[in-house]
Amino acid sequence: MADTSKQGGLRALIKPVWPATGELLLLSLFINVLALAVPVFVLQVYDRVVAKGGLTTLQGLAVGMAIVILFDFLLRQTRSRAVQRASLRFDLHFGQVLFQKLGRMPLRVLETRPAAFWQGLFRDSDTVRNAVAGPPVIMLVDLPFAVLFIVIIYVVAEPLVWVVLAAAVIFILFALRSGFAIGAATNRERGTSIGRDAFLADIVANRTTIKALSLEQAVMPMWRDRQVDAIDSSMDRGRISDTYGNIGVSLTVMTTIAITTAGALAIMDQQISIGSLVATNMLASRIVGPFAQLVTQWRALVMARQSGKRISEVLSLPDDHQEQAIDLPRPEGAMTVEGLTFAFAPDQAPVLKDIRLKFPAGGMHAVVGPNESGKTTLLKLLMNLYQPQSGRILLDGADITQFPLTQYARWIGYVPQENVLLAGSIRDNLARGREDIDDAAVLAAAQAVGAHDFIVDLPDGYGTVVGEGGRTLSGGQRQRLAIARALIGDPPVLLLDEPSASLDRAAEESLRDQLKALSRDHTVIMVSHSSILLGACDNIVVLDRGVIVRGGPAQQMLPTIMQRRPAAAQPGAAAARQGAGEASASGARPAVAPPAVTPPVQPTEAGS
Predict the structure, then answer these.
(1) Could you tell me if residue 92 is left (phi over 0), alpha (psi between -120 and 50 degrees) or otherwise beta?
(2) Which of 97, 124, 537, 544 shows the smallest number of beta carbons within 10 Å?
(3) Nearest residue to 148 via CA among 31, 311, 11
């Protein structure tokens, strides 16, 4: 699908409803022309039928009006159907493009906003849809025909046309003023609503912890404050909207009174007839009506404009690298990190500083270190989820930034700390929606991590629905499925972040044996503090405060790591942190790290 960010953003998205605009204008033209029939009918009844007793004329006019009413009904029904079709086309196209855009955006961009913001974009799309393919657009289409009615009033009652023009100008200025006021109130309402929804999303996401610790009473005041703010802003917006709406009704009544008063004077001066006055009042209602609706519909239009602006800004954000120049063969799995430095923001201290590593193809390697040392961030960089400020990462000698993430993800199996499964069956989760994955590949991945036995023991086997986030399964089962999912497609590199966090000792030993077997022809890189898994590794790298302080063969590194001595008690620790050397996974130690220096390691660490 075309990149909408390069085609005018929102304008490209609403392109499917453009053809309906011409159809709506044409239908509205006929509808508004037929609307002239009623004032003409009234004019003729007053000036001819009543004044001259023309019963035959009345019969003819009545038959003509019956035909007009029938055609008017058919035209309005046709216009409603056209709006519905435009709305359907908009929903199908807009929702798909917006969802695809979120899938193409870099992870760092997605992490800069709360989940409630991204969820709100789809509510924004509904708001835009309701404006460009709903009642507001019909109102806007009817507005230009006010010129036609003013011309007719000039023909049938020239003295009154100036009153109507003055009323129209007042309504236009009033509509603009109400638009600014309602728009500001709507912005405040949306801001407080997003804050409340984001807090609610956090509560729902952490409902187990809240329930277990009985934190309901603790979070209630925080929820109440946000709910009160949202209600206050909503009531404030409603008060402003109602005030302007009621003023609009009063202006409509005042317009009718002004036209009637001026018409009465013109009748007494014999400038117009009674029929002309009645017809003018009816035509004036057709002019003032859309402007009065504009006041009440302005909130919808302002919200659509604001929603469209937010969506347009998101669509203009850069995408992950998507273009694939050539389909390269499956890599061997050698990974090299050259002078890697990464910070989450330009004004923040680097999380990783001048990291230099070499992981040969094959083998089992571990990255350890205390909390907040940058281990998980390093894995995400190896996964090409983040872009470094300097340095680069190579896969078999090729810079990984040149690969589309869809292609690169087929070569790198990734198991994050949070083992979240998508709602659906176990097979759907393992296959990851890839059409090239058959049942044999799913079965092989499940067997490789020992998940097949518990899967077939379930009532529906591989068709078992895991529920929201995999809630119907235990933590250990979710952990095994996450590892099996990473093996789908037989990627040459496996990145695992605390893969044994939810496993008991027996399952951990089984995982160790499975990973060791996989490391014969796969490059396994993991963050772990499990002595069972670390004992099976070939090499271990120690990170502390974003720099490499030690690295080498696991047999040499393990005794020192397991001592877990505080870094402050070890001479030379500060000097080791001042620079980052190259830790070769082939066994060479970094030149800047004295052999005796090892940072403290927390075996129970849950994340970096």
Answers:
(1) alpha
(2) 97
(3) 31
> Residues 546, 552, 554, 559: is their CA dihedral positive or negative?
negative
Is the pLDDT higher at 604 or at 384? 384
Helices (H), 316-389: 375-382
Half-sphere exposure of residue 491, counting CA atoms within 13 Å on the CB side?
25
Round the average pLDDT of the chain to a whole number and report it. 78
Which two tokens mark 220? 């209630």
CB-based contacts of 486, cutoff 8 Å, min separation 6: 413, 414, 415, 494, 495, 496
Give residues with Cβ within 8 angstroms of 71, minimum separation 6: 30, 34
For the segment 334-352, the average pLDDT, to the nearest whole number, is 89
Q: What is the pLDDT of residue 521?
A: 87
DSSP one-letter string for 333-351: --EEEEEEEE-SSTTS--S
pTM of the model: 0.64
How much is the pLDDT for 169? 87
Q: CB within 8 A of 73, min separation 6: which ones?
A: none
- Structure tokens of 52? 């001259």
User: For residues 383-415, b (16+ Cβ closer than 10 Å) or e, as one string?
Assistant: bbbbebeebebebbeeebeebbbeebbbbbbbb
Residue 304 · residue 131 · CB < 8 Å: yes
> Does pLDDT of 215 surpass 70?
yes
Residue carrying structure tokens 């097979």: 427
